[in-house]
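Retro notes, item 3 of 5
We never archived the inputs for the fe (ii) ion complex last cycle. Fixing that now. Sequence and ligand:
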Amino acid sequence: MTPERIAEFIYREARTLDLMQWDEWLGMFLEDGRYWMPLEWQQTDPELEPSLMFEDMLLLKVRVERLAGERTFSQKPKSRCHHLLQAPQILSIDSEQGKCSARTSFLYSETRGDALERFSGWATHELVETDGGLKISLKRIDLINFDAPFGNIQLFM
Amino acid sequence: MGMYRDRPDSVSGLVRDREVHRDVYVNPEIFEIEMEQLFRNVWIYVGHDSQIKNPGDYLTTEIGRQPILAVRHSDGSVNVLHNRCPHKGVKIASESCGNTGKFFRCPYHAWSFRTDGSLLAIPLRKGYDGTGFADTRAAKGLARVAAVANYKGFIFARLTATGPDFHEYFGESLSTIDNLVDRSPEGKVAICSSPIKYMHTCNWKMLVENQTDTCHPMVAHESSAGTAIKVWDREKDDSGETPMAVQVYAPFASPYEFFEKAGIRVWPNGHGHTGVSNSIHAKYSGVGGYVERMEEAYGPEKAHAILGQVRHNTVYFPNVMVKETVQILRNFIPLAVDKTLVESWVFRLEGAPDEFYRRALMYNRLINAPTSIVGHDDLEMYERAQEGLRSNGTEWVNLQRLYEDDEGADDTAVINGTSERQMRNQFAAWAKYMTLNMSGKAQ
Ligand SMILES: [Fe+2]
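Structure as it came back at the time:
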């Protein structure tokens, strides 16, 4: 578990999203992994405080499968996204427990039709070493303007 | 000169028994008149008591285009005031909520005002001696909004000094707020968190109509609810328990017959609700210990009557929807003819298990957030309608499903749950309150 390996994992995760390789992306999560977008500054509780997203694997699968649905009209035309990442800052490495965490500053763009929306924030990854390599136990997205009124956000930051 | 200002007949002419003219959704002048007339003539939701618990606590909002603040006074009362310094017009409070202490102080010239709006002090006050200041509007401080009602903690205000009385205006529709409050064993609900905000590029009335549109979920939400059901069927474990998120999504795919039988109730002044005898919220699994607490608080009979009411969406005309069953209030805030901010607020049931709050917050993010797949389905339809209405193929929007010749405006009735009558009901109220105080000669 080295800083280089962690950074490589985070870059690869962004790449699968940009390339819309959804199954590969879902495979980067632990079975009980979560994707969390808080709605408060430095939020600590994802469920008893309001969140924009707090998705388990079942809900992420629903989202991904819906994107390809025949009658998913909000994806006609389809959305695309782009992640611009700063080098991840390693927050912790616990080799004994096989756990680590990193914080990555990002610019995210999501486009559909003629519209393009930009978001800035920080992604925090909590990763676990498994037989199949590193996996995400929690991906947390903190937007700088978490409390602003957004239009549709249909893909993943 | 516009087509509609000061022409009540032209405005009323946009609403027919079974259809409305597209200008109600796309005409910028109509939007301006809505802000000037409709939103001035009726009772508009301001906020909830629990957001301003302590003396000096305030919240800011707008009624139509007018900046408003609500503040808790030292005597415990709530004052709703125009958020504008009587001196140069500067907004006194700029944050969405906060505590101002014993008085407001204008940040421009330091005029200060008590929390009942009255003028407290002006620097160099001598400069006004002998100028007749005492008789001016400015000397009276922050102007009060003409009419305010605090119904069980829900604060509403009306800008016009005369108009329908609060109870006369809302009538029996208040039974949904009653039920929301009663679902707390302590008879108290509270807002403890920020709303989810979601920007919509469509007219505000499309959102309000959607609240009682029961012929769209099985179509527009096939993509979200249908996929959720499919994925769960494939992935489910053998615990026999359906996850709460699936319980939330799945009923959106219910068949037409379900909604037909569930019924719609219309009330006078444009209010109404879906889910008279059944609703998509009726089958959520129970929360341990809650029914016992409710029985203790109300006695078994009343407790079961409270919990037996499972209404779906209650529209408080013009622009609020309440779901008592999942403790959510949605405020459809018009910003422009094709731009609407939706604020979805969650209430905590005081004295009930945390599970309800967790569930309400989950419902809110799954259904009402800019990251909600159900929201994506709906917004796509509103946007397409906002664009499609530019077509000159026809200028009229059809609202005649299950129309009956003897429908009176301002009736109370329970009808087939797939009727578009509540939409017609809203437009009847719309025409009435758009033109209520409109000057101008009949054409
Ligand atoms: Fe919908």
